[in-house]
Amino acid sequence: MNYRALRVEEQNGAFFRSVxxxxxxxxxxxxxxxxxxxxxxxxxxxxxxxxxKGVSKTFPHTPGIDAxxxxxxxxxxxxxxxxxxxxxxxxxxxxxxxxxAEYIRVPADWPLLLPQGLSLRETMILGTAGLTxxxxxxxxxxxxxxxxxxxxxxxxxxxxxxxxxxxxxxxxDVVAATGKIEAQPWLKKLGASRFLGREDLxxxxxxxxxxxxxxxxxxTVGGIPLENIIKQLKPHASVAACGLVAGAELxxxxxxxxLRGVNLLGIDxxxxxxxxxxxxWQKLATEWKVDLSPMVTEVGLEELEPHxxxxxxxxxxxxxxxxxxxx
Length: 327
Fold this sequence. Notes:
By secondary structure, the protein is α/β, with parallel strands linked by helices. It has helices at 43-49, 120-143, 158-169, 184-190, 199-202, 223-232, 255-259, 274-285, 305-312; strands spanning 2-11, 14-23, 32-41, 66-74, 84-88, 103-106, 112-113, 150-152, 174-177, 192-196, 216-219, 238-241, 263-266, 296-300, 319-323.
């Protein structure tokens, strides 16, 4: 049996992408075979699709760190043929052929059953970005929100925009930081009450502390913006950090931590434990379910190319849903 997949191939150090027809025999060994209905585009997918060896080491390769679909074969009693399942993170789309294909085969510890209240399509509008945003919001909630607005950086991106919607659903006063003025109308629909420009957080400040004004934050960019957020958190407030597009280094003193008692919370969705995943997906299907339609662009495999370019250039907004087979 054959299936279609987006393949990234290397020729003389250059990388090329095209939709190919492959045999199911070419899938890796695994416990569960899934017919993919939808995937999504993440920054890590774009890196893999352009040959970044820090993400995917061997080529030809099929990217796609997210997949949702129907089980067609299972060697594990936790899953039966016909089950609707989600796979996000782990090694999918990195060095294991990923969700930009009509079929995937994965270890049984990776999938989770589709939670009641979400369709396969809705899960991939969320995808890794949604799980990451949910982990960030849950971490802030557990630590305790302080009085004052909650800041979200990279608010027009996948994680940031979903975080805006989730925080707004919790009745938080959400300040969205974005360099894309054109994204402000739909971010306002998602629940942002006001906006900061990218330049408002991008200038390094020599002072070890700045005026405390944020009761919490979700940072998706890292670098100087994260430094400035930490300096501007109110006493005992927290920032959940999950990105580094603005830089991987932090130039800070210990003063925000020992004089204001602020918290820097690291978020890792790739290796999140399964019980935590299940709990958060259930929340995303029920009390945290939000309407993300203002931020969704749906494409097929053959239409991915410009979106891969845009996300690498920082020109992408919202979520790109990848239709593989549909429901």
